[in-house]
Task: inverse folding
């Protein structure tokens, strides 16, 4: 049995450019550490496609970058790379 989508635009399509977000403590330099860690792991990071958003009380920050992933395994490796950073509480 083969599982196929009736809409190829649905879901993640590899290779591609994806966004990854991480949440961590404000003031921890997450924006720089996140991009550096992804690049050190071999990913192409689109630093121009970066945004950050502080929490309502300013204690936390969500940082998002676009990056290239050739396969699903690469995509998952990017999440693992960021989760290994002590400044990162979780990724999306």
Result:
């Amino acid at each position: 049995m083969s599982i196929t989508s009736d809409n190829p635009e649905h879901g993640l399509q590899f290779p591609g450019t994806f966004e990854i977000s991480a949440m961590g403590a404000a003031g921890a330099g997450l924006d720089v550490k996140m991009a550096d860690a992804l690049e050190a792991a071999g990913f192409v990071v689109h630093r121009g496609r970066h945004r950050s958003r502080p929490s309502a009380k300013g204690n936390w920050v969500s940082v998002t970058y676009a990056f290239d992933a050739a396969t699903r395994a690469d995509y998952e490796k990017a999440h693992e790379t960021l989760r290994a950073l002590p400044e990162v509480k979780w990724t999306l």
The chain has a mean pLDDT of 92. Residues 9 and 48 are 25 Å apart (CA to CA). The domain at 16-91 is CATH 3.30.70.260 (Alpha-Beta Plaits). The radius of gyration is 15 Å.
